[in-house]
Design goal:
Helices cover about 5% and strands about 50% of the residues. It is built from one helix and eleven strands, in the order βββββββββαββ. Strands 2, 4, 5, 6, 9, 10 and 11 form a seven-stranded mixed β-sheet that branches. A four-stranded antiparallel β-sheet has the order 1-3-8-7, with no helix packed on it. β5 and β6 form a beta hairpin. The model has no long low-confidence stretch (mean pLDDT about 95).
Length: about 130
């Protein structure tokens, strides 16, 4: 069982930055893949970024490439999402999710599929004003 806690959301102007954190309770992410997803009102949950194998595998949605960076902390129990050059269309509730790296890396594009992740945080709101 993995418990995830997100933090770092808030209100920021367009062009600004935020850093989200996803902390694992009582364990590390060493054997897990961690993904960030987001859901805007009236829209389906969508993939944002994922990391596995202690950062050896990193994936991004095309719309955030060059603006967002996913990373794992030195203690390997926290995954960060650094978000720069934020746009109003980035406004959403952001969720982190985790599952075994073996599962996430076992199939094509599993890293971007919400249904492949068993563990989810409660979400943190990101609002970007224009």
């Amino acid at each position: 069982q993995v418990q995830l806690v997100e933090s770092g959301g808030g209100l920021v102007q367009a062009g600004g930055s935020l850093r989200l954190s996803c902390a694992a309770s009582g364990r590390t992410f060493s054997d897990y893949a961690v993904g960030w997803f987001r859901q805007a009102p009236g829209k389906e949950r969508e993939f944002v970024a994922a990391t596995a194998l202690r950062g050896a595998r990193i994936y991004y949605q095309d719309s955030v490439k060059g603006r967002f960076t996913i990373s794992t902390g030195d203690a390997r129990n926290t995954v960060y999402l650094q978000m720069n050059s934020l746009k109003p269309e980035d406004t959403a509730v952001y969720y982190c999710a985790a599952d075994s790296a073996r599962n996430i890396l076992s199939g094509p594009n599993y890293y971007s599929s919400a249904k492949e992740y068993d563990y989810w945080g409660q979400g943190t709101q990101v609002t970007v004003s224009s």
